[in-house]
What does this fold into?
Amino acid sequence: SLTETINVSKTVVVDNNPKSQLSMSASKDPLIPGDSLTLTVDIGNIDNATLNNLELRAILPTGVTVGNISDGGTKDATSGNIIWGITSLVVNKTLRRTIDVTVGATAISGQILATRAELRHDEGVPLDASAEQDRKSTRLNSSHTDISRMPSSA
It folds into this structure.
């Protein structure tokens, strides 16, 4: 008799002119209440020119406590988002940023903790017009990964 269901899905968008790549992973999945894990966000420049004035955001779920944030990232006091400002990213280079978080002790079994990352760069358009998203969801006490990607629209 099967007692656990595993669901994996991935959505990919076709973009004829992508400028950047973004991915997110979690060091642990599934989790139990009180677990600590590291969220890793990788960005890459796949364009033929340097990307300038980048802003990387991680939108965290409620019920997690933020620990260490790598590379000078800060937690926005209003939104709770983690934000990194990056001056530039040259062609064919990648960057990695991490966030250590702890799941609340009162988290409920089966709860999905969805984190979203967003990369913005100016590439000749307003900062908020060029966004790439990836979402990593972690379910407590079961194996579930749901990853979605929306390439840059710059």
User: Anything to note?
Assistant: The radius of gyration is 16 Å. The first strand starts at residue 7 and ends at 11. Confidence is low (pLDDT under 50) at residues 124-154.
